[in-house]
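User: structure tokens for this one?
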Amino acid sequence: MSLEIQEESITKKDSIKRGIYILPNLFTTASLFAGFYSMVKTLNGGTEDFRIAALFIFVSAIFDGLDGKVARMTGTTSKFGVEYDSLADVVAFGVTPALMMYAWALKPFGRLGWLAAFLFLACCALRLARFNVQVDTVESKRFVGLPTPAAACMVASTVLLFHHFGWPSSFKRLAIVALIYLLAFLMVSNFRYYSFKDPALIKRQPFGFLLLAVVLLIVVVAEPVVMIFSIMLLYVFSGPVDFLITWPRRRRLEKAVHKGYEASNRGGEV
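Assistant:
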């Protein structure tokens, strides 16, 4: 073992011995607890239990969003917190929605059903692993691939929508299977999704933005289940739509770069 690796190992051990930050990790634990409680309600198997299980996925997503913000605001970010958050996300946004969808709608499909649930879980874990590797190399305003909390909330909003309209889980069951496979693909895709981490969001905005926010809030409160499902669906498809819209511009840029590369090579040969 080289001296640099030994020193890095000693530094990591010393940082753990000095302790961990309690506040952000409590929020992460709350997210993990909500995900676990969702699984407990799923295993009960009642119609109302599935509704509560779906609601607790949203609760888990709220706590997951808060832990990072609290850590940054209080200056308590740490490598331990990042790893703990990823492990909690695998449970809350991978295992929990996969189990819920299998018990709720996919079980009658047999092998196709549990494979769909497993694929969702596997893609969730792969998405989180890729995020941890790329966290310092990609822009913070965009996520590469559908974020796992968004995928889990899309699953939860689907369950809530069916419960809201009184539809049985057998209604449009093939569409549900297709949705699970689509979400799994989008999580590991290269489509870019807005992260809502743009500092400009908290700066001064035109008065019309406030009016629009108030109108949106009223609409959501009037029909929360339908609107949340619609918002999640729009976000899920925002990545592919953005890819298609920006495709011509990216192609022109790639061609310009390629031409510049060829021109520089010809100049080098001369």
